[in-house]
């Protein structure tokens, strides 16, 4: 086997890094750092690899070593601050930011950013309240202070908005999200423009659809078929992807649809100013953002009016608070009499869920016994969706059902997993033998797990999306607790669409526990799963009617129907 020089090995490691093969790159840089422990370039690249691999503690160690070797190293303070934030070490992150600001070695946007931190895995409700109040205070400060100059988005002065983390609690975020938008428009001059083409429509409506996630991602799965349903006799459809969009099967479907003449794809440039110019040149009549808030770069883009009408939907199920987004597309089955008051957008109501979900395909089959399992509870959700109030639900289920086993899936971010475990284990009711964390599963084993569960536990305040559709491949019922906010009402809407009789929809938390235990212990759970599966096949999967409604509501906006 050829023995490489240190210089050659560095080049190979760096080439793997450029190809985004972070595992191989990290392995080679680890070999180099043993012989060159104080080489800044090696340490810098190794930290980069660790960050992408979500090995944040290792990344932190590399970055702190760099600072010890060279305290005035540019950029390292902001990278370390981000790494600490990713570990929920927020107070430590703030100290690093302050040190970087003092030495003039950190981007000035961090003066604001440090006060917008919010924990991914809050330790308790008090911590949520503490950081929310801090954010509210900072936003008010921005609104009330006269700044001497604007921040420049295109010079990497990009503030990460806190709206996603804030949405996982049962707060009404309308006023705060409105203020967020006002604050960012005050900070970034580029957001204060209207550049859309006010043209008379002659022929087809020009519709732009913008997302970073038209790939093998929840957003891609939920919305691709809805987009493909747009009738090309009425619409010219333009899909705007991000430079960050990873290739995959779903992305390839978009490429295929372009070859078939259904739509056109455009990958937007990195700079916000260039994005705006590209979109402006398309002279769009309407823009559809499936997921405003999921992507930072497209969150800011959505704050600018670039078409006569701008619509969002369930991809990020909260109000944007922005006057630039006119409508929120949602099913009538997901709303109640109070829903509109929580949204700055006008609710654009259709009968079906605004998605055409392809029936999942499993390479593995369940046995008859698997379908009839009792006492198996599963919550296959990203851990940061789980509010501290949800912990007590788990403990109450374990207390009420002495045979209960509750399953979670470990997050790839080991820090979040450890923090969630620590939160649970602080309670004397925690039982590690009955609360099981599965290692991340491949897709087909994951589907099998959903089918083996007696019942699924829909997170309170911010419910399931993609996982509910996947669970219906086998018909496993989900217990859900809808609040007034759409973010908790997708499962409710799906049950109504499926016309399920007496589904497990809870009135409050005690009722949630009762329903979960009752369903997990039903003697007819196997037969019930068959009913749910049949209803999903007929009324949930591949619902072409949703596409027809989507086409109609857009045509109605332009009085062309």
Can you give me a brief rundown of this structure?
This protein is of the alpha/beta class. The chain is built from 23 helices and 12 strands.
Textual characterization of the structure:
The structure is a single chain. This protein has 561 residues and is of the alpha/beta class. It has 23 helices and twelve strands. The chain starts with 5 loop residues before the first helix and ends with a helix. The radius of gyration is 25 Å and the shape is globular. α12 links the parallel β2 and β3.
Features:
561 residues, alpha/beta, Serine Threonine Protein Phosphatase 5, Tetratricopeptide repeat, Rossmann fold, five-stranded parallel beta sheet, 23 helices
């Amino acid at each position: 086997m050829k023995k490489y020089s240190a210089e050659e090995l560095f080049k190979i490691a760096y080439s793997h890094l450029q190809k985004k093969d972070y595992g191989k790159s990290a392995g080679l840089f680890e070999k180099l750092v043993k012989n060159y422990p104080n080489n800044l370039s090696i340490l810098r690249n190794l930290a980069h690899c660790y960050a992408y691999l979500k090995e944040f503690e290792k990344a932190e160690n590399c970055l702190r070593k760099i600072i010890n070797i060279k305290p005035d190293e540019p950029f390292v303070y902001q990278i370390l601050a981000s790494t600490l934030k990713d570990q929920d070490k927020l107070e430590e992150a703030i100290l690093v930011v302050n040190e970087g600001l003092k030495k003039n070695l950190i981007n000035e946007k961090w003066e604001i950013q440090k006060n917008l931190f919010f924990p991914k895995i809050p330790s308790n409700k008090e911590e949520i309240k503490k950081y929310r109040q801090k954010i509210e205070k900072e936003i008010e400060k921005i609104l009330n202070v006269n700044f001497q100059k604007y921040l420049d988005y295109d010079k990497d002065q990009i503030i990460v908005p806190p709206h996603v983390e804030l949405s996982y609690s049962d707060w009404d975020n309308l006023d705060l999200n409105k203020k967020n938008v006002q604050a960012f428009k005050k900070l970034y001059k580029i957001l204060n423009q209207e550049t859309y083409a006010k043209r008379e429509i002659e022929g087809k409506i020009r519709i732009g659809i913008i997302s970073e996630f038209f790939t093998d991602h929840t957003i891609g799965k939920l919305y691709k078929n809805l987009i493909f349903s747009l009738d090309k006799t009425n619409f010219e459809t333009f899909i705007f992807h991000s430079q960050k969009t990873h290739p995959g099967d779903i992305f390839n479907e978009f490429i295929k649809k372009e070859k078939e003449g259904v739509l056109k794809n455009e990958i937007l440039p990195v700079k916000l100013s260039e994005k705006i110019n590209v979109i402006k040149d398309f002279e769009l009549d309407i823009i559809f953002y499936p997921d405003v808030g999921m992507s930072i770069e497209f969150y800011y883009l959505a704050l600018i009016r670039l078409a006569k009408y701008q619509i969002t939907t369930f991809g990020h199920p909260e109000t944007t608070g922005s006057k630039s987004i006119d409508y929120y597309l949602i099913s009538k089955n997901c709303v109640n009499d109070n829903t509109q008051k929580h949204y700055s957008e006008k609710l654009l109501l259709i009968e079906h869920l605004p998605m055409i979900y392809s029936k999942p395909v499993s390479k593995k089959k369940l046995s008859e016994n698997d379908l009839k399992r009792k006492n198996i509870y599963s919550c296959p959700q990203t851990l940061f969706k789980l509010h501290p109030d949800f912990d007590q639900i788990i403990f109450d289920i374990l207390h009420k059902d002495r045979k209960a086993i509750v399953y979670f899936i470990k997050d790839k971010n080991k820090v979040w997993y450890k923090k969630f475990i620590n939160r649970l284990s602080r309670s004397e009711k925690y039982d590690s033998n009955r609360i099981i964390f599965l290692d991340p599963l491949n897709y087909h084993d994951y589907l099998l797990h959903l089918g083996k569960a007696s019942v699924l536990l829909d997170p309170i305040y911010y419910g399931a999306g993609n996982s509910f559709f996947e669970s219906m491949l086998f018909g496993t019922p989900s217990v859900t607790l809808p609040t007034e906010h759409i973010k908790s009402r997708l499962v409710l809407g799906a049950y109504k669409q499926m016309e399920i009789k007496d589904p497990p929809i809870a009135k409050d938390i005690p009722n949630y526990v009762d329903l979960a235990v009752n369903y997990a212990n039903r003697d007819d759970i196997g037969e019930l799963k068959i009913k749910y599966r049949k209803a999903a096949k007929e009324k949930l999967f591949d619902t072409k009617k949703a596409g027809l409604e989507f086409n109609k509501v857009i045509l109605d906006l332009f009085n062309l129907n």
